[in-house]
Design brief:
One of its GO terms (molecular function) is acyltransferase activity, transferring groups other than amino-acyl groups. Keywords: Transferase. By secondary structure, the protein is α+β, with helices and mostly antiparallel strands. It has a domain of 104 residues: Gcn5-related N-acetyltransferase (GNAT) (Aminopeptidase, 3-Layer(aba) Sandwich). Strand 1 and strand 2 form a beta hairpin. The chain is extended. The N and C termini lie far apart (60 Å). The mean pLDDT is 93.
C-alpha cells in the first residue's frame, strides 16, 4: 500500500477525551479564521488589576480590536463589593482603550443589577436574551464615545 492510498482512521473524541491543548487549538482556529475574513485586525489584550498589598481585590480584562473595547471579565472580590471598585475598574479599562483609539466599548452580563450599573456608567442595552440560562437574562451593552463612519 502506498502513502497515497493508505487510509487514516478517524475517531470522534468527546468531553474529557479532548485535551485542553486541543480545545485551545479549536478556539484559536475559529479566531484565526474569523480574522482572516476581515482586514486590519489589531487585536491586543487589555487588562487592569487593583491590589491591596499583595492581594488582588479587583480587575478586568478583554481586548481592543477594530477600534472597539471588548470587556471579557470584570471582577471585584466579594469582601470589596459595593464600594464602586467595579465602576472604577471599568473606567480604567475605558481610559486605556481610548488611548488606543477606540471609539466604543462592548460588555455583557447575565445579572440585571449589573446591567443597570453599566447603564448608569453610560452604556446602552443593544440586546437581551431572556432566560439565556434559567433565571438569567443575557444583556449586551454598548458605550459609544465617537460615532463610527
Amino acid at each position: 500500500m502506498t502513502a497515497s492510498t493508505r487510509t487514516v482512521s478517524r475517531e470522534w473524541r468527546r468531553e474529557g477525551a479532548v485535551s485542553q491543548a486541543d480545545l485551545d487549538a479549536i478556539r484559536d482556529g475559529v479566531i484565526t479564521h474569523g480574522r482572516q475574513q476581515t482586514q486590519g485586525s489589531d487585536a491586543r489584550d487589555i487588562a487592569v488589576a487593583l491590589y491591596e498589598g499583595d492581594a488582588l481585590i479587583a480587575g478586568g480584562f478583554g481586548r481592543t480590536e477594530f477600534q472597539r473595547l471588548y470587556v471579557s471579565y470584570l471582577w471585584v472580590d466579594a469582601d470589596h463589593r459595593g464600594q464602586g471598585l467595579g465602576g472604577d475598574c471599568l473606567r480604567q479599562l475605558e481610559a486605556l482603550a481610548l488611548q488606543r483609539g477606540c471609539v466604543d466599548a462592548l460588555i455583557e452580563t447575565l445579572l440585571d443589577e449589573v446591567a443597570e450599573l453599566y447603564e448608569h456608567l453610560g452604556y446602552a442595552c443593544i440586546s437581551h436574551v431572556h432566560d439565556f440560562v434559567p433565571g438569567f437574562t443575557r444583556h449586551t451593552l454598548l458605550k459609544v464615545w465617537q460615532a463610527r463612519d
